[in-house]
Amino acid sequence: QVQLVESGGGLVQPGGSLRLSCAASGSIFNINGMGWYRQAPGKQRELVARFTNGGTTDYVDSVRGRFTISGDNAKKQVYLQMNSLKPEDTAVYYCNSYIVGLYGGTNYWGQGTQVTVSS
Fold first, then answer.
1. Is 39 in contact with 89 (CB distance < 8 Å)?
2. Measured at the alpha carbon of residue 100, what is the angle toward residues 99 and 102, in degrees to the nearest 5?
3. In Å, what is the CA distance from 3 to each residue of 22, 26, 80, 99, 110?
4. In whole angstroms, what is the distance from residue 73 CA to residue 117 CA?
5. Measured between alpha carbons, how far is residue 7 from residues 34, 40, 64 in Å?
């Protein structure tokens, strides 16, 4: 069974930093891209940052220059370094990946980790 597990959320003051981690585990043949999404109360889930299939990175405009996505292929992990956090970054952050496992390819989501930016 394939799973994505996030960690690293929490409460931080405006201007602070957090680092989110996401680990993929299970019977994995191939990972086609990994990324981070977020959903704030009353809003739709939105893409924050991702690795594309070509290996490039993509960011939503509101976080470009403040957030950095990175990954460790050997460990099947992806990270999101978030700097200069703002109250509007408050949301549940989800890891996402299209993973090919024993039974074919599926789009997987983690359980989410809460990020709260508040003084």
1. no
2. 130
3. 10, 6, 18, 10, 7
4. 30
5. 15, 18, 22
The residue type at 38: R
H or E element: which one contains 36?
strand 28-39
Q: The tokens of 72 are what?
A: 């460790």
Spatial distance between the Cα atoms of 25 and 15, rounded to a whole number of angstroms: 33
pLDDT tens sequence across 70-114: 998 888 999 999 999 999 999 999 999 999 988 889 999 999 999
Q: Write the CA distances from 72 to 11, 77, 80, 88, integer angstroms.
A: 26, 5, 12, 28
110: closest CA among 30, 29, 9, 11? 9
The Cα 95–Cα 111 span in angstroms is 8
Summarised one tens digit per residue, pLDDT across range 9-66 is: 999 999 999 999 999 999 898 888 899 999 999 999 999 999 987 778 999 999 999 9
